[in-house]
Amino acid sequence: MTGPSAKTTRAQEVYDQIRDRLLTGELEPGSRLKLNDFVEGYGVSLSVVREAVTRLAGDGLVQASPQRGFAVMSLTIEQLLDLTRARVLIETMALAESIKLGTVAWEAAVIASHHELANTPMLTPDGVINADFTHAHRAFHDTLLSGCGSSRLQGVATELRACSELYQSWSQQLAHDDTRDIACEHRTISELTVARDEDGAVAALRDHIERTTAALVRYAEEAAESATA
Amino acid sequence: MTGPSAKTTRAQEVYDQIRDRLLTGELEPGSRLKLNDFVEGYGVSLSVVREAVTRLAGDGLVQASPQRGFAVMSLTIEQLLDLTRARVLIETMALAESIKLGTVAWEAAVIASHHELANTPMLTPDGVINADFTHAHRAFHDTLLSGCGSSRLQGVATELRACSELYQSWSQQLAHDDTRDIACEHRTISELTVARDEDGAVAALRDHIERTTAALVRYAEEAAESATA
DNA sequence: TTGCGCCAAATAATCGATTTTTACTTGACC
DNA sequence: GGTCAAGTAAAAATCGATTATTTGGCGCAA
User: Fold this and answer.
1) Which SUPFAM superfamilies did the record assign (chains A, B) (predicted)?
2) Which of A117, A154, B115, B155 is 20 to 30 Å from the Cα of B9, by its Cα?
């Protein structure tokens, strides 16, 4: 019992920490995971790291190649578009269900989580993405779907969204994208949702998801060009 | 290189075999998994078994309880209804997408897989569920959704369906359910799908899924009654 | 010079044993 | 008679080391 947390297993802690590093973009998509570095860094045995990484592979955040190790999951543009399409279909469906079935408590939660999101700056003074914003953003989108009455459906949506977040750090450059007003997008989604405007809210959410991907694809293509140039 | 297969890792083999035993119902929902038995039975080390079981937990087929081991995932009736609802929503959506987007090759695949299913007896002469039928059934449902153009969406649907299959063996008793004509249900789904009747096919698939769950719930409640009696 | 195959270092996979935690049993105390 | 607690047995988690596989480099031959 050396650390602050004593109730979880080591594998769980390592899983959580690596997951965090994946989702913050500290570990870049495509880069190989050196298990030995984790062994030293976390002061645990290889078995523990293996279990953590295996679980992350199950989540779709890490790619496992038999006999060849693990790497941060890297998507081709085609796969990214596929993921986006699946997310749009599933998230909009879950949102529609929420709007149909959601209770007043759910409405309140949506308003609350949007308020928190709206009042959390996206960037820190240093110009990097604010971790609090990431959490608030995640919570907002989760809350939107939490009225659908199916934890399974919600879980699937959350899992897919996490995969998209792998590229979040790449959107950092796009945070200055002046063709978008992300705060406004969130506000629109929140308001239409609470107003129980199913079609409107669904359309707004779809736009929101697709715009992020579009920006990402644009960024990836620029990067590819400058690489070949 | 002692076994017949030499190209996969041991953990993968053990994963496949345990998964098979889970889906055939040989390992009953709720029963604890004795890792040591697997160690002896498969002649591998504990690490290998652990990795396999951890992956199965990620698939939702096994429940992992920290410090308390693993058990075959067991669902309450409430959870089973939730799972069914999520399956209906996602599978019908994928089917609708397939009907909208599917190519002629997909149509052909649907017809082919239905033909194979229709000509595979559900029970062996002994009265047990035929493994070939299980495979054909799985293939048929997968093929139905394979025209949707999103491997992600298809993957999610397949994963959820696998969870339902944990209770397949319990349906064995229900195979004689004379209120249903399962072959007819499959034929209807296949025909409406190929006819591109979106609403009809979706409704037929929904019925098919919900009937299986309803039978399962009936069975579970009977079992609960006879247990308390 | 180029291509093929062999050797060595690095990395992944697996193993057997140790440590830690939980579950059960037994016995004493209330 | 019932409850709680200490002790014991079982099982899970973790570790350190061994074995197998891949990767990259080197030499040899065409």
Assistant:
1) GntR ligand-binding domain-like (SSF48008), Winged helix' DNA-binding domain (SSF46785)
2) B155
Looking at domain B77-228, which of 1.10.287.130, 1.10.287.1770, 1.20.120.530, 2.40.10.340 is its CATH number? 1.20.120.530
| pLDDT of B4 over the 60 cut | no
- Contact state of B89 with A93 under an 8 Å Cβ cutoff: yes
Say yes or no for a CB contact (<8 Å) between B85 and A9: no
Residues of B in contact with A149 (CB under 8 A): 85
For residue B38, which of B62, B58, B59, B60 has the smallest C-alpha distance? B62
Q: Which CATH class is domain B10-72?
A: mainly alpha
At B129 the pLDDT is: 87
Interface of B with A (CB under 8 A): 8-9, 12, 47, 50-51, 54-55, 57-59, 66-67, 82-83, 85-86, 89-90, 93, 97, 149-153, 156, 160
pLDDT 10s digits, B43-92: 999 999 999 999 999 999 999 999 999 999 999 999 999 999 999 999 99
Positive or negative torsion for Cα A205, A209, A211, A212:
positive
In SS3 terms, chain B reads as CCCCCCCCCHHHHHHHHHHHHHHCCCCCCCCEECHHHHHHHHCCCHHHHHHHHHHHHHCCCEEEECCCEEEECCCCHHHHHHHHHHHHHHHHHHHHHHHHHCCHHHHHHHHHHHHHHHCCCCECCCCCECHHHHHHHHHHHHHHHCCCCCHHHHHHHHHHHHHHHCCHHHHHHHHHCCCCCHHHHHHHHHHHHHCCCHHHHHHHHHHHHHHHHHHHHHHHHHHHHHHHC
State the smallest CA–CA distance between residue B126 and chain A in angstroms: 37
- Encode pLDDT of B121-164 as tens digits: 998 998 888 999 999 999 999 999 999 999 999 999 999 999 99
Structure tokens belonging to residue A191 = 């308001």
pLDDT at residue A13, as a whole number = 96
Inter-chain residue contact B153 with A86, CB threshold 8 Å: yes
- pLDDT mean over A198-225: 90
Q: Domain residue spans in chain A?
A: 10-72, 77-228
